[in-house]
Amino acid sequence: MVTKSPKETPAREMAAAAAAAAKRAPVAAASPGDQVLQVVVMKVAIHCQGCAGKVRKHISKMEGVTSFSIDLESKKVTVMGHVSPAGVLESISKVKKAELVFL
């Protein structure tokens, strides 16, 4: 099996993809073993391009991530993929201080 590394996606494309995924999502609850496509938005303590690069490198190595975007100006990081919000938060928190943003 060939693994694809996640790609960084501009924020507006990420929002459009998240809206489309939400429309396609099944209404029935998923079993605990199934991973559904998740969009996780976090506020991360990124102050410069160096901080953003550190977070970018970390996210690109995470399993289950299909795409992500980093908005340095608003200090928001959006991760999309077959991941859990708690897992993404825990992983990013190892590199930079982060907290989930509830929409």
Automatic annotation (TrEMBL):
Q: Which domain of life is it from?
A: Eukaryota
Q: Does the keyword DNA-binding apply?
A: no
Q: Does the keyword Metal-binding apply?
A: yes
Pfam families in alphabetical order: HMA
Chain ranges of the HMA domain: 37-103
Q: Which UniProt keywords apply?
A: Metal-binding
Name assigned to this protein: HMA domain-containing protein
MF terms from GO for this chain are: metal ion binding
